Amino acid sequence: MSERRDDEALFGKLGPAVARHDPVPEAVSAAARGAFGMASLEAELATLVYDSSLGDEDTRALVRGQGGGRELTFEAPSLTVEVEVLTAERRLLGQLVPPGAGVVEIRFPAGSVTVEADHLGRFSARDVPAGPVSLRCRAEEGPPADTEWVIL
User: Which of 66, 76, 96, 100 shows the smallest number of beta carbons within 10 Å?
Assistant: First the structure.
């Protein structure tokens, strides 16, 4: 028990010193606060199951050679989200599976952009900023799905 008190006392002294000499940048704090607001308890988590940028050397060279495109696939229990990232154009092309109309919100630390998926589940978004991005997908059927955050 004595060690715990010692640790708490040490952290109590270090906290203000760190805050004074190496404060957390406001942009980082704002992004962290925003992330809590983006959490959705009713949404399924769509995990990243494929990222073309993580393939072998030959695959990465082919992807870079085709204009810097990247393919991502996210899976949730009731929805799969396939996304092609056109890096040079800052554009996303996507598909909801199973196909169907819906709404896709592309979220990033500074805000979000909402686009509609057509009756085949296809969607497109322009001017997506580089950096962390997550998609919240609301298909006509089933619960919403939130993708993991990825860096574009």
Answer: 66
Between CA 124 and CA 118, with CA 128 as vertex, the angle to 5 degrees is 15
Q: How many CA atoms lie within 13 A of 146 on its CB side?
A: 15
State residue 40 phi and psi, 5-degree precision: -130, 115
Classify domain 42-151 at the CATH class level: mainly beta
Ramachandran category for residue 6: left, alpha or beta (phi over 0 → left; psi -120 to 50 → alpha): alpha
Closest CA to 31 of 129, 142, 114, 108: 108
Give the up-direction half-sphere exposure of residue 100: CA atoms within 13 A in the CB hemisphere: 12
Q: Where in the chain is the domain with CATH 2.60.40?
A: 42-151
Length of the chain: 152
pTM above 0.70, yes or no: no
pLDDT of 28: 67
Q: 30 pLDDT band (50/70/90 cuts)?
A: low
pLDDT at 64: 42
Nearest Cα neighbor of 84 from 92, 95, 76 is: 92
Residue type, 3: E
